[in-house]
Amino acid sequence: MRRALVFLALAAACCATRGWTFCDAPGECVCRYHERAEEDLMRQHIDCSYGRGAHAANRTLPPRAHSLDLSSSGLKIIRSGPFLRSKSLQELGLKNNDITYIEPDGLALPDLRRLDLSYNRLERLDAAVFRSITKLEFLNLANNNFVSFAKLTFHPLRELREVILNNNNIGPALRDTDLFDRDGFGLTNKIQKVSIGGIGLGRVHSNFFVDAYDIRELVITNNELRELFEIPFTLEYLDVSDNPIREISGEDFTDLTALKVLKMNNLGIGSVPAYALEPLRALVRLDLERNLNLSEFSALAFGQEVLEDADDFTLEELSLKSSRLQTLDRRLQVPLGRLSRLDLQGNRWHCDCRLAWIKQFQMKANDYEHLRCYTPKSLFNSKIFELKEKYFRCPRERGGGGVGSGMAVGLIAFCMFSSAAALWLFWYLPGCPPRGRALPTAAYSALPLHAPTATIAPTAL
User: Which end of the chain is more exposed for a tag (fewer CB within 10 A), N or C?
Assistant: First the structure.
């Protein structure tokens, strides 16, 4: 009897405790255990996204909670209390809310590794907020209202590996400083991935990344950069798309021997000049899409060596779609022929004999569906891969003579001019009597052909 009473008391206590957890919010949260990896079988994943009342009853987290998603749940302020306290939680999603403030002890999560606060209304974060989540490795603060390092400091986050700051107007605050300045934002030099797209950055000064010893990925898109900057040599991934950059050269990529992915979409460049990409010996993927001024891609863009021997050519994917290219030099056939994916769609291709060689490439159907002729007018919008070879003609083939005819005409004209000059000299040069004219009779005495013989009288002796 006594044992039964003790059992009932423990059961009641457990039920009372369970009644306050997120997993007991009917219709608000979905709780499940990870089923893929054996080490995750006891880790609980809690999804309360779009649950407007999940946090209203001051619920707590289960003891084995591993991840919690409170996205789009109407949160405005994260207050101190049992709401977000856990020794086991490692991932927290708070995106798409209206959060304007987080109290210093609002995130009592000492083992937290990933935090998503994107798409909120935060203007500042107290340094004390980060002191309670010092093991954080990933932080997403995109699309908030931060403007300066005075209201945002990363000093306590010594284990941070990736930070996303897109679409916060912190660009003006970075004119004379950088994200790693100990007196400024204080981002740890252990950082490996940084995304600062759309922050109003107009210039990257020469020492901007001098303290970023191990940075591997950099996204610096949709800013106001007019030229490339001193790129960290440790980078493996670089995206500078959607900037008004007007030219590139090999000097911009010197010593980037580790770079594998380069994206330069929607820039202001007009050409990819000779040797511009030669230093990128480890490049695997190159995107040059939507460059509306790009009309020239040099045959020597990757250097001279790869045109003859592409055994060391590492590029696997190249996209030049939606630009203004009209032709490609046939000399690129060797390196481009080694690609696993090539996208040339959406350009203004001039379909003549100089472009017919691209039909030899092995492309996937979705990579040549919109690969079409722009000129000549007779072939406008024709699918290049469906056109027969005979339609890729050059002017000399249509004109029935071309350059040879022009040379012949020039030679005939030269001969006629030379003949006319010779006749003029022959007829009118001074000192030469003109032929065909009668000689003057007064100048000479002509004897008759049968003149009578004169009889000379003998002289008398």
Answer: C
As a whole number of angstroms, the distance between CA 419 and CA 412 comes to 11
Distance in angstroms (rounded) separating the CA atoms of residues 95 and 308? 52
| pLDDT tens string 230-285 | 999 999 999 999 999 999 999 999 999 999 999 999 999 999 999 999 999 999 99
* Strand segments (E) across 120-190: 138-140, 162-164
Q: Is 46 exposed, middle or buried (0-12, 13-18, 19+ CB in 10 A)?
A: buried
Q: Which has the closest alpha carbon to 320: 344, 296, 301, 340?
A: 344
In this structure, the number of other CB atoms found within 10 A of the CB of residue 360 comes to: 9
Contact 316, 295 (CB under 8 A): no
Say what the alpha-carbon torsion angle 257, 259, 264, 268 is, to the nearest 10 degrees: -20
Whose CA is closest to 303, among 259, 237, 250?
250
Task: State pTM to two decimals.
Answer: 0.80
In the block, residue with structure tokens 């890729």: 392
Beta partners for 341?
317
Q: Two tokens at 399?
A: 């004109």
